[in-house]
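Thread title: Can someone regenerate the structure for this chain?

I was given the following input by a collaborator and told the matching structure tokens would be attached. They weren't. Posting the sequence so someone can regenerate them.
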Amino acid sequence: MGILSWWKGKEAPSESKPAPKPGNSSQNPEVPGMNGAVEVRRPPPSDVTVFEFGSVAASADKVTLAGYCPVSDDLEPCRWEILPASESDAPQFRVVF
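Best answer:
Regenerated them for you:
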């Protein structure tokens, strides 16, 4: 039947598929404590550049300053976070582009 089925006066057969139930997703289980939110895992991007420099061993602070700088056509600020250094050879600075 197709586009001109209305011209001939015949109804096009409807192909109805049952809608997936949002609550029964076996791929993405609900995250506990997040009010029904699900975690969506994404593959790691292949074009990531990481710069690490300095050493926590040379400092008494034992923290790493970690930054994420998005690379896009828009001017976006970097996001910074201070992380506790869990290893003795952890870097003092880590920047991800």
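The radius of gyration is 26 Å.
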